């Protein structure tokens, strides 16, 4: 049986030096064989709780971050390179809560035609990705959120998405959507047929690049 405090100490060192959050698999590859990574992470989370820097899991990966109640001490200000428009915020919210969702479905919820540029911006920022083509007439592409979306909003998983009021308070949505917008469970497919019809496009980056340029209203 491994020494959990010692394993936790090693994980602390790895996370401190890492340039980005690490998954349990990443940590296991760097630790001696048989190391109890999950137990060590739980131990580290417990011992760091309430301190200035705490252990947090975001999008399935672990990192140290400043305790939420000490955020006021972070006085450095910087200008965001690109601020999402209201249309982009609404589109992102719809995708987050209705994914996988097609462009036509986004337009149906918003009540207005979606601008090609709005989806392009979300794809370019890495907040949204194409999930696959639906096996319906026209073979429309479906969209979903990415791990970058979870990291940006500090969510461990899609199941942690907030309700409407919390969305507005967090800045994810700053204006009212038309009637028809609801908050389904984004971790579950909306139908058995839809789960079977979504084709994964992660192995086709060339198609992604071509699609962004060729998308038509």
Automatic annotation (TrEMBL):
<keyword id="KW-0132">Cell division</keyword>
<keyword id="KW-0131">Cell cycle</keyword>
<dbReference type="InterPro" id="IPR036388">
    <property type="entry name" value="WH-like_DNA-bd_sf"/>
</dbReference>
<protein>
    <submittedName>
        <fullName>Segregation and condensation protein B</fullName>
    </submittedName>
</protein>
<keyword id="KW-0963">Cytoplasm</keyword>
<feature type="region of interest" description="Disordered">
    <location>
        <begin position="184"/>
        <end position="217"/>
    </location>
</feature>
<dbReference type="InterPro" id="IPR005234">
    <property type="entry name" value="ScpB_csome_segregation"/>
</dbReference>
<keyword id="KW-0159">Chromosome partition</keyword>
<dbReference type="InterPro" id="IPR036390">
    <property type="entry name" value="WH_DNA-bd_sf"/>
</dbReference>
<dbReference type="Pfam" id="PF04079">
    <property type="entry name" value="SMC_ScpB"/>
</dbReference>
<feature type="compositionally biased region" description="Acidic residues">
    <location>
        <begin position="193"/>
        <end position="204"/>
    </location>
</feature>
